[in-house]
Amino acid sequence: MTQHVDILALLKEAQSKPLTDPILAQLGIDLQKSTFTQGTSPTSGLTFYDLELGAKSLYPVLTPLRNLIPRVSGKGGIQAAWRAITGINVSGMRIGVSGGNRGGVQVVATADYTASYKGIGIESNVEFEAQYAAQGFDDVRAIAARTGLQSLMLGEEAMLLGGNTSLALGTTPTPTLSGSTTGGALAEQTWSVIAVALALDGVINGSVAGGIQSTITRTNADGSTDVFGGGAAARSAAATVATKGATGSIAASVAPVPGALGYAWFWGAAGAEVLGAITTINSVLITAAASGSQAAASLGAVDRSTSALSFDGLLTQAFKAGSGAYVYTMAPGTAGIGTPLTADGAGGIVEVDAVLKYMWDVYRLSPDTIWVNSQEALNISRKILAGNAASAYKFEISVTRDQLGGGFMARTYLNRFSMAGGSTLDIKVHPNLPAGTILFTTGTLPYPINNITNVMQVRTRQDYYQIEWPLRSRKYEYGVYADEVLQHYFPPSMALITNIANG
Fold it and tell me: DSSP assignment, residue 309?
């Protein structure tokens, strides 16, 4: 009997079985294992590491005021000093004269001004090993020098805007509280609330998670120590209110503090108040237990809103009593909500027009720039777009290939109060200006023979310079410094709107 063999089936069966050798099998060698495989990690095995050379600098260096304000060289001394004629015929002497007689004598107002120079600087260092490790990738010593200068410029920008060496915020007023049985999730108890007014430094460097800075003690690169204020006023006295049930809330407010750009709020049981909110208006609606960890008691009772190591920035010079700058403070409104800007129904904003009218009526000038936070930039655009007078707008729409772009942004504002019958102000977003505040600045004074080349300028005893310090360890050390002060010859050419609510 003939037996038929399926050759194809036998071949398939052989292919499905691993090829083995009895001797290699005894040695534990698997002939089916690959000689090389792709590694499971980018840094393991015989795998090329595809790293692009050079570190990418992915951080903003936005310094619009520093770029705009002229820099001039000082002439020694410890301060810049100047004198000004601030008014002529301030007594209102009438000019009519009788025959053969002389006229009355006018009275001229003058003022003396000073601004003390301040040193600014920051340091970087590179360990020898860091340089060795970076060979072939990037020049870390050059990066240290570059980033030091950039950091100095960023710090200088914040100081030009709101540095504060002379405007103490004092003790924050005691909060006014109103408890409710609804609107939140507060447990039934007696709550204690403390408020702290903040200068610009306190606002931009504070957070609920990280806390606010009162007294700062800094250890410097040479081992010395500096102690200075972090931009926080003295804390208020505690105010208390009781809530009922488990859905309570508290509306808290304080009287607006001149010069404050924000407020930190602490609440909890008496003596155990912790940070729960930072606002840019003078009130807060408390609906839950505070989520921060910083205790109000840790701040002490001393006003630390100023810093002896800073010069006065534009905001401080405008806020100071006697500056002549117009400060429009929005009404407190409902606690936790506040008062937003008001559309006039004709493409304008009531509060902005009030500022511009005042500056013309009193000083016969028009500012040229409105500095805002992104929140106010958005709100200004919405207020203008929401105007009821259709004739106030001109829209130009271009449609290409069935594509229509969306969005609206107010980039300028028309000032109706000027000799020219109308002038245009640029609206610019500033990276350090907190929400709730608008700053108006003027680049040119319309006054004849005023002897002012620059309305504002940075006067330097020594402009930017870099030092590579002598070696004292196996570490390269660099310092970037300048010595300067901000001069503003005519603060009345600035104005502020503060305590603006979102909306």
Answer: T
> 484 and 460 in contact (C-beta within 8 Å)?
yes
pLDDT, one tens digit per residue, over 227-256 is 999 999 999 999 999 999 999 999 999 999
Pairing between strand 215-219 and 79-87? Answer: unpaired
d(CA 170, CA 173): 9
Q: Are 412 and 348 in contact (CB under 8 A)?
A: no
| DSSP string covering 30-76 | -TTS-S----SSTTSSS----PPSS----S----HHHHHS-EEE--S
Structure tokens at 243: 């809530």
Q: What's the one-letter identity of residue 148?
A: G
Q: Answer whether 161's CB lies under 8 Å from 430's CB.
A: yes
Residues 281 and 283: their CA atoms lie apart, in Å, by 6
Provide the token pair at 476: 């390269």
CA neighbor of 245 nearest in space, from 312, 196, 313, 182: 182
Distance CA 238, CA 224 (A): 37
pLDDT digits over 167-194, tens only? 999 999 999 999 999 999 999 999 999 9
Report the C-alpha gap between 430 and 64 in whole angstroms: 7
Backbone angles phi, psi at 268, to 5 degrees: 155, -160
- Please give the Cα distance from 148 to 144 (Å, whole number): 6
Secondary structure E strands in 237-385: 239-243, 249-253, 262-268, 274-279, 283-286, 326-329, 369-372
Contact residues for 177 (Cβ-Cβ < 8 A; gap 6+)? 191, 193, 239, 240, 241, 250, 251, 252
Measured between alpha carbons, how far is residue 476 from residues 7, 144, 153, 363, 473 in Å? 78, 10, 22, 54, 8
- Asked if 181 and 231 count as a contact pair (C-beta separation under 8 A), the reply is no
pTM of the shown model: 0.88
Return the beta strands (E) in 297-396 as ranges.
Answer: 326-329, 369-372
Residue of 449, 429, 431, 463 lying closest to 70 (CA atoms): 463
β 412-415/283-286 pair status: unpaired
